[in-house]
Amino acid sequence: MDFVFKNKRIGGILTILPKKVVKFEEEMGNYSFSPAKCMKLKLAMGYKEHRIAEPGQCSSDFCKFGLQYLFDNDLLKKEEIDALLFVSQSADYYMPPTSNIIHGHFELKHDCLCMDINQGCAGFELGLIQAFMLLEQPSINKVILMNADVLSPKVSDRDRNSKPLIGDAASITIVEKSDDDSTIYANIKMDGTGAFALNIPAGGFRMPSTSETSVMEQDDAGNYRSKDNLVMQGDDVFNFVQREVPPMIEHLLEQADVQKEDVDWYMFHQPNKFMLNKLADKLGVPREKMPANIVENFGNASGVTVPTCISFNLGEQLTDKTMKLCMAGFGVGLTWSSIYMKMGNLLFNNIVEF
What is the extent of the structural domain holding 161? Predict the structure, then answer.
């Protein structure tokens, strides 16, 4: 499904990271691998360290901290907010919606649309598409897009398939109307037949968490996890990304009438360094144009890896000049989405710790 938007812009990006840093070497004793094999895994996948939330910290806590930071630094005013989008796989509660909790915390105006979206790896792109659509309404001028995931508590400490890469983080993106009539191109695709390639089996209404679902079991690869833990079919996800993402990007750039070499940066979701480098090669894009340094420094916080990548690698550059960016997310759902747009003259584009 294709989308075209005009007179919209990203006004600022703030990434919020946990202060807690865990190094790969601290955890590799939990895996059924020799130290030599663990170090080989570290080099191949780009594992170095990741950021993990403290016990009790939830997704909304990171969003509230980030919003308060923007308010305190006069980067955003409460009365400007017309819509509050919360994109996450780790909501605080079944009910009420987390966006409403954040709305109430700051006592925002009643004429403010709150919306929770259950989405992961492609959540930043899906959230932007939703924000752009809301901005088509005369009464909405500024949308606050919050992407957040605190999934580390749902990953088994003895799962070398997922534990070394998982990270917690949040981002706040200001999306607003603009006089700039440059076109934004976007697309999104879904394949629910592969939905269980990434899954937490227990904990919902279908299979409530019990003492039985917490029992640890060993898989064929030597990983230990329970039904309360994240399960990722790594090979299936890798093959899906290599098969579906390149044609999606080719189509996006064709729609935008842009050559690959004219794109300044490819800011993609980062499952791991190996997968992203292979994807760059498959696309015929120079690896230096597709940064793959987020997992090794912060971990994979699902869709938040894209704004983190933009803040970490471009920083103040985007406050001074405009660049042509191709963004993409792919994974849980299965969902894959991409956006091509010019981005620049941001009010802020930085990282804070909570």
Answer: 1-354
Structure tokens, 105: 């915390």
Q: Kindly list the distances between the CA atom of residue 315 and the CA atoms of 56, 320, 328, in Å, as whole numbers in the listed order.
A: 30, 10, 19
- Tell me the percentage of the chain whose pLDDT exceeds 90: 86
What is the strand order of the sheet 169-177 is part of?
113-118, 83-88, 142-149, 169-177, 8-17, 348-353
Terminal-to-terminal C-alpha distance of the chain: 37
pTM over 0.85: yes
Domain with 169 in it: what CATH number? 3.40.47.10
* Digit-coded pLDDT (tens) for 256-311: 999 999 999 999 999 988 999 999 999 999 999 999 999 999 999 999 999 999 99
DSSP string, 232-300: E-HHHHHHHHHHHHHHHHHHHHHHHT--GGG-SEEEE--S-HHHHHHHHHHHT--GGGS---HHHHT-B
Q: How many domains does the chain have?
A: 1
As a whole number, mean pLDDT of residues 239-256 equals: 97
